[in-house]
Known about the structure:
Strand order of the largest sheet: 6-7-5-12-13-14-11-15
CATH topology of one domain: FAD/NAD(P)-binding domain
CATH superfamily of one domain: FAD/NAD(P)-binding domain
Radius of gyration: 20 Å
Helix content: 25-40%
CATH class of one domain: Alpha Beta
Strand content: 15-25%
Low-confidence stretches: 1-5
Number of strands: 18
Order of helices and strands: EHEEHHEEHEHEEHEEEEEEHEEEHHE
Amino acid sequence: MTLHTSSHTHTILGAGLMGRLLAVSLARQGHGVTIYDSGGPLGEHSAARVAGGMLAPLAESAITEHGVVRMGRHSLTRWPELLAPLSTPVFFQQEGTLIVWHRQDANEADRLRLQLEKTRATVTELPAMQVLDSASMGQVEPALAQRFSQGMYLPGEGQLDNRQLLAALAQEMATLGVTAHWNCPKNPDEVSVDANGWLLDCRGLGARPQWSALRGVRGEVVRIHAPDVTLQRPTRLVHPRYPIYIAPKQDHVFVIGATEIESEDLSAPSVRSALELLSAAYAVHPGFAEARILEIAAQCRPTLPDNLPAIRQTAPRTLEINGLYRHGYMIAPAMLDVVLEVLDSGQSALASSFDLSLHLLEQH
């Protein structure tokens, strides 16, 4: 997508996932870009740093709306296009999602299967789910065939390494000449904006003074190194309290998450959460018993009352992009494309296809 206007300088508040994607995309189009963030290039203050990086629209449909599912499907196509030009490689995989459960959770698994089938009947562009028996489980994920005699396989779903991506986008910003003010948080009224440029507010919870409906939903993840475990794709365990996933990254690193707690507490993860996540992983594969814990981390995801993302224009040439909740990596490319359409033409056809809340000022 190319802007039809002449080159301008755009100002971005917040260099999390959304801010970095916008900065790189706009800079590639030949625009000047200035970005401000409260943290550094590692994204240490961003919800994007504490994430599984999974791109699983059908799996996530159990807890979200069809519009978000469509955004996820769109983004699965867009991610390879966004990653290809980066000078630093980013781990990306599209080997589907595996869902397993223990016998005591069979009824919950049946409810989930019916829900996913209903979603697939409505969002027909999603690949059909496959119900696995013992033999097909051995073909899809041999490492788990002895533990689980049945499961569900969701083809086409993917994942990426969020830490690698944040680093690669920071490097790309530097290469493209983006002016980055790290460790320098700003409010909209504290920055001067090019008369023909846009102010794009992507600060997540940092934008709450301007968007009071935002709240934080705490998530906790564990990163471990498990040389004895080989999983070929993200695996989700049906759990009575919340979905637990195990996402295999490169070099036998696994990200296990994610608790979902209505809290804005940013303290270290609780013993209860750590035990639940690690116990769930061990119950999936005994090889995790000798894994080494690399990190246990917590962060709060910016969430609006309906748990859905939104874009709103609060002043001429000012957009606020927020509320990505637990779906940041899954929907960020779709959100990016909507914003680029708005900057290009003042409206977005994509937004309506995603049922995305897009509030623009009337043009006079």
